[in-house]
Amino acid sequence: MKTKQRLIAFSVASVISTTALADAPSMEEMWTIIQQQQQQIQQLQSKLHSNNEKLKQTEVKVEATAVALEEGSGSVAAIAQWASKTRVGGYGELHYNNLDEGDNEIDLHRFVLFFSHQFTDSVRFFSEFEVEHSLSGEGKKGEVEMEQAYIEWDFAQNQQAKAGLFLLPIGIMNETHEPDTFYGVERNRVEAEIIPATWWEAGTAVGGEITPGLSYDLAIHSGLFMDDTARIRSGRQKGSKAVAEDLAFTGRLKYTGVAGLELGITLQHQQDIFQGQTFAGASDISATLLESHVAYLNGPFQLRALYAMWDFDEGINAVAMRDDADEREGFYIEPSLRINEHLGIFARYSEYDEVRAAATDSMEFTQIDFGLNYWLTETVVLKADYQIQEAPRSRTEADGFNLGVGWSF
After folding, report:
1. Would you state the CATH architecture of domain 85-408?
2. Is the dihedral of CA 266, 148, 377, 92 positive or negative?
3. What is the pLDDT of residues 110-125, one digit of tens each?
């Protein structure tokens, strides 16, 4: 039995061995297989090297991108920082006037842009760029003006100095005249003709707080250069190649120590409003302006009142061709009531002098204004008023109504 088993096992082993030997490759086939495997190995090594190079290039690009992002973020941060310290604003007003004196008209009276920048915590820049009456240029009725452009510096606590082109510290409206801040379509005639607002000049000034509620302003600046019309408003030089043979000095005290109350007094002096020149045989004409005002706000009720007076040397009478041009004054009183968030009503009584009246007439004009403001929002306002004017005999009395829209931002 065992012998038979061994025989069967041997036969099976023989068959397997014969089959294995029959399937085994020859030496030539083995060499071919080895060469093919070598080529595959070289191809894999080449691919691996290529992948390593691509990986290195990717690392370089990633690093460059990181640097660019870092540099770019620095630029973006710088721009964001600049923008956070720069402000843009402005205001504008459109008027419709229907008056007995002159033609009825619609006028984009002014459009103004503000630009300011905070250089440091103590140094800043402010400017005001204005277009009046919509169009400017030769033969056009409008003007393009720089109303303000100055540097302000906090040189001590609650103390500032500034240099450049700035609004003079006089009256109620000269420094704050956005249309949403006052009643009436047109600015009141007393501040427009006597002060005359809006009035800006080039120079330098200091100001600040003396005690809580009491502040001061002192300025030295380009002064009036009045011509043979002897009209105050036409004498403003506005920093435009201003003749500076004689400068002007302005000082103001303002009290705001009681909530809702402002009291102000301003004194200005200039030694020669003709700036070294002679008109109608007159020269070296000095001028002094005194202005005082009160503005009081108590809930919905507001009261504004202002008085201003110029005192000139008598020599100006010869230029104005009248014997009373050396003293000019004006005042107004204006109560108003804010009925609700949107609607307010007002009335104003004014008296003021203008030399445009004939020499045989009084210079005194009297005007009554009353009307309403309707604020669509806090800084967008619609206005309507009616004015009654009593003028010297040689002047047409400008009675009629005015409509307007104003905004600030």
Report:
1. Beta Barrel (2.40)
2. positive
3. 999 999 999 999 999 9
Rounded to an integer, what distance in angstroms lies between the CA atom of residue 86 and that of residue 322? Answer: 51
Strands 159-167 and 143-156: antiparallel
Q: DSSP for 113-178? A: EEEEEESSSSEEEEEEEEEESS-BSTT-SBEEEEEEEEEEEEEETTEEEEEEEEE-S-TTTSS---
C-alpha–C-alpha distance, residues 246 and 233, integer Å: 18
pLDDT digits (tens, 9 = 90+) for 334-373: 999 999 999 999 999 999 999 888 888 999 999 999 999 9
Which residues, 6 or more positions from 321, have their beta carbon under 8 angstroms from its beta carbon?
280, 359
Each domain of the chain, given as residue ranges in start order, spans 25-84, 85-408
- Supply 44's token pair: 């894999």
Determine contact, residues 305/171, Cβ cutoff 8 Å.
no
Could you tell me which residues are beta bridge partners of residue 282?
Answer: 279
Residue type present at position 90: G
pTM, rounded to two decimals: 0.80
Instruction: Count helices and strands (H / E) in the chain.
Output: 4, 16
Supply the DSSP symbol for 79: H
